[in-house]
Amino acid sequence: MAGAATLTITEANYDNEVAQSNVPVLIDFWAEWCQPCRMIGPTIDQLASEYQGRAKVGKVDVDSNRNLALKFNVQSIPCVVVVKGGQVVSRTMGIKPKPEFAKMIDAAL
Q1: Span 30-51, pLDDT tens digits
Q2: Which residues does the chain have with pLDDT short of 70?
Q3: Which residues have a Cβ under 8 Å from the Cβ of 86 and sit 6 or more positions away?
Q4: HSE, side-chain direction, 13 A CA sphere, residue 108
């Protein structure tokens, strides 16, 4: 599950937390049954703590938020995207080391 600083992004709060955000948002598209997703979970939570106040970091459960997965054309998970000003500025799929996710956020700051 998400760490204290990690947002749970849903279809209900997407506009408020992501589309209207004045800071970049890293979104981890994941599912409970996805082993690779569970492996990067702690990394995503660490980034959420480290970037608190400068960027948002959140997770979207694709099983309960299918419309968001469709909106972002998520074909396989884990899929990590960075949204800035309502637009996707970077995306990657699969297990990556933490510095790679950090670079995605840094590039959007």
Answers
A1: 999 999 999 999 999 999 999 9
A2: 1-2
A3: 18, 19, 20
A4: 27
User: Do you know the residue count of the chain?
Assistant: 109
Q: In this predicted structure, what is the pLDDT of residue 48?
A: 97
Task: Tell me whether residue 1 is in a domain.
Answer: no
Number of domains in the chain: 1
Which residue shows structure tokens 């899929």?
79
Range of the domain at 86: 7-108
Which are the catalytic amino acids? Answer: 34, 37
Considering the domain boundaries, does residue 66 fall inside one?
A: yes
What CA–CA distance (Å, rounded) separates 73 from 16?
20
Would residue 17 count as lying in a domain? yes
8 Å CB contact between 95 and 78? yes
- 3-class SS of residue 108: helix
Largest CA distance in the chain: 32
Round to whole Å and give the CA distance between 8 and 17.
9
Residue 26 lies in a domain: yes
Whole-prediction pTM: 0.95
